[in-house]
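Narrative summary of target 7.
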Amino acid sequence: MIARFVAVAVGIWLMAAPAVLDYGDPAATSDRIAGPVGGGIAFVALWKVARSLRWAVFPVGVWLVIAPVVLGYDDITAWVNSIACGLVFVGTVRFGGVSPDQFGGGWRTIWRPELGTWPGAPEPSAEQRAG
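Modeled conformation, tokenized:
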């Protein structure tokens, strides 16, 4: 869970970094898009039911690592910031593990095949269960 908070903090930092570190486009635009996307995904992945969503931060981190080359950043500060934040995003994906809790259950949560009824339906009588 700490890894998700770190990723959220990096996402917030990416939104502020162009103003704080004083670099412009195209690095600023890339950071202002990747920051809320990566941070938002990490925020949703805080909940156990959405924990596997953390893997969606991985491509955002990879983008931040390759963006300086692809977009041709001209400021070394933007290069370092983008690569560092991208590596943090990629690194935090690995932590968080699988939740021991199970969520959902598919159709079994709706249909009770042992009774042949839907939730909320009246319980079958003994004669109906005997068949």
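The CA atoms of residues 107 and 113 lie 10 Å apart.
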